Amino acid sequence: xxxxxxxxxxxxxxxxxxxxxxxxxxxxxxxxxxxxxxxxxxxxxxxxxxxxxxxxxxxxxxx
Length: 63
Ligand code: SF4
Hints:
There is one protein chain. The chain is of the alpha+beta class and 63 residues long. The chain has one domain: Alpha-Beta Plaits (2-Layer Sandwich), CATH 3.30.70.20. The chain has 2 helices and 4 strands. The protein has helices spanning 15-19, 44-53, and strands spanning 2-5, 24-26, 32-34, 59-62. The protein has a two-stranded antiparallel sheet. Strands 2-3 form a two-stranded antiparallel sheet. Strand 2 (24-26) and strand 3 (32-34) form a beta hairpin. The longest helix is centred in the C-terminal third of the chain and has 10 residues, at 44-53. The model has no long low-confidence stretch (mean pLDDT 96). The chain binds iron/sulfur cluster. Residues 5, 10-16, 32, 54-56, 58-59 line the site of iron/sulfur cluster. Iron/sulfur cluster (SF4) binds at residues 5, 10-16, 32, 54-56, 58-59. This is Ferredoxin. It comes from Thermacetogenium phaeum (strain ATCC BAA-254 / DSM 26808 / PB). Ferredoxins are iron-sulfur proteins that transfer electrons in a wide variety of metabolic reactions. InterPro entries: 3Fe4S_ferredoxin, 4Fe4S_Fe-S-bd, 4Fe4S_Fe_S_CS, Fe-S_cluster_ET.
């Protein structure tokens, strides 16, 4: 799977970074970004948990 954060939607709550810091981090504008867009298999669960936990649905995933 791949993940992508839409910076226009992100409200910088930090949830995705708390849940899955191996995949998400802050960008230079204080919005979340995916460090690894192509998610390694062993991190798919936490990457998906972040997708489901984002309060504004800013994280998009593709299979
Ligand atoms: S959970 Fe959503 S709104 Fe919160 S920092 Fe991550 S992408 Fe942004």
